[in-house]
């Protein structure tokens, strides 16, 4: 298994580091504004808990990079975290924030309002296209790199299996929030559990679907096995999305809001 980070001796400019922090930080602030808007409109805190959980998703990146052979230039980097010799820049932490906290509240609200099968899959396809279009420009300019000669189906520098796995895990987080609010939470205070469950859902959904690629890319030098593994990972990602669709489409209806209930003098008082 190859643990070598080929970007350890590659330099990055301060313009890239600061520019990335400003660019992605601005989008993260837009996402915060959107979450605040949804929270105020619904008078619920779950969008803010989702935002906080999204801010923890960077913890997955070192594992993801190590196993998927992705790396960032290290010399001159404004480093957020270093694990397994994987150096993660601050701007990627900001990417994780808006990557989830923008689409997830939108999806949850659409599902709660009721959604058809066609609408559900259209949303997934749109998100997959956005994911596929987002990274190639930054890869071209050296902000990050998918390295190794056995990266499969990497026509744009961004291997194709990511196009399907990344939007899948966004849908998985949205499904977690949607289903917990509908079937599990009986008190608004319980929504704070969303904070740790966001990164845990990311780990569980993305890493499990990507396991075939992670194994193949670290065991072979050619792209034959990784191509086959990529197809399997794409299939697993689509399977997960199909399962989510069954849960969401079959239950989509306005979500009853949880309340904190106390009983006094034979009467039940609801506190919202």
UniProtKB/TrEMBL annotation:
Descriptive protein name: Carotenoid biosynthesis protein
Region Disordered, annotated ranges: 253-272
Organism this protein belongs to: Mycolicibacterium hodleri
Membrane-spanning segments: 15-36, 48-68, 88-108, 124-146, 161-180, 192-218, 224-243
Keyword annotations: Membrane, Transmembrane, Transmembrane helix
């Amino acid at each position: 298994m190859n643990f070598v980070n080929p970007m350890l001796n590659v330099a990055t400019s301060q313009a890239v580091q600061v520019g990335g922090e400003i660019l992605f930080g601005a989008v993260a602030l837009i996402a915060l504004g959107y979450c605040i808007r949804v929270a105020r409109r619904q008078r619920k805190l779950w969008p803010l808990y989702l935002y906080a959980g999204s801010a923890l998703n960077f913890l997955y990146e070192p594992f993801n990079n190590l196993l998927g052979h992705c790396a960032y230039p290290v010399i001159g980097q404004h480093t957020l975290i270093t694990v397994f010799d994987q150096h993660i820049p601050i701007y990627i932490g900001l990417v994780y924030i808006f990557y989830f906290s923008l689409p997830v509240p939108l999806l949850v609200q659409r599902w709660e309002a009721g959604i058809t099968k066609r609408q559900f899959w259209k949303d997934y396809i749109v998100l997959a296209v956005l994911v596929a279009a987002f990274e190639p420009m930054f890869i071209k300019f050296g902000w990050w790199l998918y390295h190794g000669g056995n990266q499969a189906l990497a026509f744009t520098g961004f291997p194709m299996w990511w196009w399907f796995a990344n939007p899948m895990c966004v849908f998985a987080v949205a499904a977690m929030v949607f289903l917990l609010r509908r079937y599990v939470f009986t008190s608004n205070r319980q929504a704070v559990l969303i904070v740790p469950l966001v990164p845990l859902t990311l780990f569980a959904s993305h890493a499990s679907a990507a396991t075939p690629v992670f194994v193949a890319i670290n065991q072979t030098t050619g792209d034959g096995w990784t191509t086959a593994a990529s197809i399997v990972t794409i299939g697993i990602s689509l399977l997960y999305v199909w399962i989510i669709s069954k849960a969401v489409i079959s239950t989509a209806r306005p979500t009853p809001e949880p309340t904190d209930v106390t009983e006094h003098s034979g009467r039940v008082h609801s506190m919202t």
